[in-house]
User: Which sequence fits this backbone?
């Protein structure tokens, strides 16, 4: 397809696609004339992933290039690909702590037997949130925390069930990213509705 | 206790407490001299709730006053109190839709048999997120959505188990607010860690 068709099908303006080409986020098309190139479905998939990494995950162009390079190098290892697209730090998130994770979070992950990277940003987020709750006098007891973790395990099974391991790695990476990051507000909304319902149930 | 002690125990500066007194967010203390008043544990609890509504939920002073008035009028009805503190709209959230909720969300709530307010802001959030996923070609099938809703029900049971229905209503409202809003990043972090673990499990 021509670049105009690529733009139409991806919903991304042609000048933006040209910018991504110059920045190396998208491989060049097959030249058909001095000023024309032909693009394929692979370009479209990659463009969608670029849009998701920049627009949804909030990555910079250079961080996106790094992630795409790493994804390409590990195509076929879905686990690694997921870690790459989900773990990369968004633009302006320089303050992410380099310290070793909190003892409490370490202990929890050990207790659950979870196999997760030492550098997963979610470890720090979890530690900081538990600390904030404690400082406000609303500490979570250990049994409750384990209960939430067990529900997170079941959620992750549902999440992973929605990825097709036979699909193209770029396609999988994009879908994983969308279903993880974009689904978050929906899951929180479901929790609030369920709280209201459960509260009504207990009061009748 | 004196206002200085109230400030020390709440962590809120004295000028801020005086401002809340002037704005009617905090009832006056018991006057002990022309320029001195005595405050009690009730003031401390109310101050904590004010801080949570303004600082955590992002409400304006006038919205906070409305919520506090409504909470006081319904003390003892935990269900109503929860709806009030969780449902109030944050500052600058004028664009919240007044339209009737999405048909898909309506149908889901009906199918689940959930008892939730027609005006719950979470309904609109859920509808918009499902729409965004659809527009990006990552539509969630109905069975998955039901699966997530069922996990939200279990989460809500854990959430409500952490509130003591015998506690003071203001104290309950504050704890409900903290555990609901502040716990969100921790639950999302647990989900990401669980995804990484589940992905590793499936690839070995």
Assistant:
């Amino acid at each position: 397809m021509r670049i105009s068709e690529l733009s139409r099908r991806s919903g991304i303006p042609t000048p933006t696609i040209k910018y991504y080409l110059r920045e190396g986020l998208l491989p060049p098309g097959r030249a058909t004339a001095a000023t024309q190139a032909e693009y394929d479905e692979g370009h479209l998939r990659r463009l969608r992933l670029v849009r998701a990494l920049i627009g949804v995950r909030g990555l910079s162009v250079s961080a996106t290039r790094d992630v795409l390079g790493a994804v390409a190098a590990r195509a076929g290892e879905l686990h690694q690909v997921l870690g790459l697209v989900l773990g990369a730090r968004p633009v302006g998130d320089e303050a992410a702590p380099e310290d070793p994770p909190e003892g409490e979070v370490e202990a929890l992950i050990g207790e659950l037997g979870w196999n997760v990277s030492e550098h997963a940003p979610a470890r720090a987020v979890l530690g900081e949130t538990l600390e904030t709750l404690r400082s406000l006098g609303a500490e979570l007891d250990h049994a409750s925390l384990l209960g939430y973790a067990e529900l997170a395990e079941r959620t992750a099974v549902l999440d992973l069930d929605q990825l097709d391991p036979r699909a193209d790695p770029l396609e999988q990476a994009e879908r994983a990213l969308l279903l993880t990051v974009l689904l978050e507000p929906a899951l929180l909304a479901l929790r609030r509705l369920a709280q209201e319902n459960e509260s009504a149930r207990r009061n009748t």
